[in-house]
Amino acid sequence: MNSELLSTLQRCGISPDEIQGGTLAVRSPIDGAGLARVRETTPGEVDAMIAGSKAAFLQWRMVPAPVRGELVRLWGEELRQAKRDIGWVVSVEVGKITAEGLGEVQEGVDICEFALGLSRQLHGRTIVSERPGHRIMEQYHPLGPVAVITAFNFPSAVFAWNAALALVCGDPVIFKPSEKAVLSGLATFKALERAIARFGDRAPPGLAQIVIGGAPLAEMLVDSPAIPLVSATGSTRMGRSVGPKVAGRFGKRILELGGNNAMVVTPAADLDMAVRAILFSAVGTAGQRCTSLRRLIVHRAVKDALLGKLLPAYASLRIGHPLATGTLVGPLIDQRAFDTLQDAIATAKTQGGKVLTGGERALAEEYPAAWYVRPAIVEMPAQTSIVREETFGPLLYVLTYDDFDEAIAIHNDVPQGLSSCIFSNDLREVETFLSAAGSDCGMANVNIGPSGAEIGGAFGGEKETGGDRESGSDAWKQYMRRTTNTINFSKELPLAQGITFG
Ligand code: NAD
Predict the structure, then answer these.
(1) Catalytic position from the list 70, 104, 107, 256
(2) In angstroms, what is the span from residue 215 Cα to ligand 1's centroid?
(3) What is the DSSP string of 319-332?
C-alpha cells in the first residue's frame, strides 16, 4: 500500500489490519490503482450490531438531549481537526477535487454545530384544549436505532448529516457506507469514535457502529424490525427496493434518491452569472452529484448568446488529477459510469440530439485504467426519454423554450424532483417558478445553481427522488417519535366533541 495513503489513514485512526488482506477491494478512480483490501462485516456481526444498537438505545434515550449535544460538539471538533486528511481520502477514493473533498468534511462540521444548537430545541407545541381545565402538548422522544446507508458520491457528509441529528435525537446509528467509498466512510466514522471516547461512559457501547460490505448487508438493516428508521441515499433503483421493504414492516424511511435537475434561463437572466453557475453545477464532481445540473431549459432568444459564452468556458475546463492545483474536473468513479455516459450520448443522438462539445474519454494514455471524460453538452430537439433519465456524469442537455409556461412544463415533466433553479431578474418569472404552479422539486433556487446546498435548509426531493428530507430545518423530527399528551387538571371528566356517555 502507498505510504502516503497508509500514513493518512493511520492519522484518521484506521489501523492497517482493517484495510489489508480483506475481501473488499478499494480502487482509486484517479488511476485505477488498488488502494486497500478492507475486511468485510459478516452477517453474524451485523446481527450482533443490531442487538447492540437496541441495547444502546435504552441508555442513550435517557441521556438529556443537551448532554447528547456535547457528543456532536466533540465530533465536530474531531472532524475539524481531521478535515485535511479526510478530505484527502475522499479525493483519492472517489476522485473529488481538493476543494470539494474538503467541502464535504466541512459539511460534517457544519451539521455538528447545527445539531448542537438543536439539542436544546427539540421542542413540541402546547395546544389549547376544547375542554375546560385541560391542556394538550406534544413531546418528541428518541425513536430507536437508525440505519444510515450512503452513496459513493458523498461518502462523508451524508453520514454526518444523518448521524449528527440521530445522535442528538437520542438514537444510536449503524452506518453502511457505499462499498465504493469505504475508506472515506471509515475515516469519518473514526472521528466519531474518537468523540465518543472523549465523551466517556455516558455513551453506551454500540452507540455508533459501522458495517462494511455490499447491498446484502444493507438489506439486513432494511429488513430488521429493531431499526425503526432507515435513511438510505443512492439510486432510485435502490430506493425502489428499500422503500417497500421498510413500509412492509411499518418502519420509517428517509429516501434520498436520484435527481434530474434543471435550470431555466430566461431573457431576463444575467447570462454571465448563469454561465458560472452552470459550470459549477454541471461539471463539478464530474457531474456526479445528486444535485448536478443535467438539463438547461433556455429561452430561444438567449440560447445562442448563452451557448456562445458556455462553450468557450467548457473548452477551458481543466480535467485531470483531482489533487493537482487548478483541476476542475476529476475522474468518473469507474468504467461502468463511463459506459453509461457513452450509452446515454449515443441514445440522445438517435433521439435527435446534437453533441455541441465533449463526451469523449480524456487522459486515456496517462491513466489507462481510469475514466476521465470531457464534459458534454448535447442539444436536444425535445425532452425525449433519455433526457428524462438521470445519467450520473457530466452530461448537460440543452432544451429550448418560447413561452414561460412551456419552460415550467418541460421542467416538471421528468420522474425525479430533487433540485431546480431559475436565472431571471424578472419578478413575475421568479415568483411563478417558486409558486405552487412552478417547480415541483424539493429545492428551487433563484440565480444560483441547483447544487451545493447549505446544511441549514431541509435537503431532499419529490417524486422518484423519494419525498423525504434530511439535514436542516425541521428534518430532525423524522428521527424522533411524537407523542400528543392531553392533561386534565380539572375535577371533571368532560369528553371531547361534547359527547355524554352514561
Ligand atoms: P447505489 O444505489 O448503487 O448505492 C447506494 C447505497 O445503497 C450503497 O451503500 C449500496 O450498497 C446500497 N444498496 C444498493 N442496493 C441496495 C438494496 N437493494 N438494498 C439496500 N441497500 C442497497 O448508488 P450510488 O451509485 O452509490 O450513488 C449514486 C446515486 O445516488 C445517484 O442516483 C445519486 O443521484 C444518488 N444520490 C442521491 C442523493 C440525495 O440526497 N438525493 C445524494 C447522493 C447520491
Answers:
(1) 256
(2) 10
(3) BS-TTSTT--B---
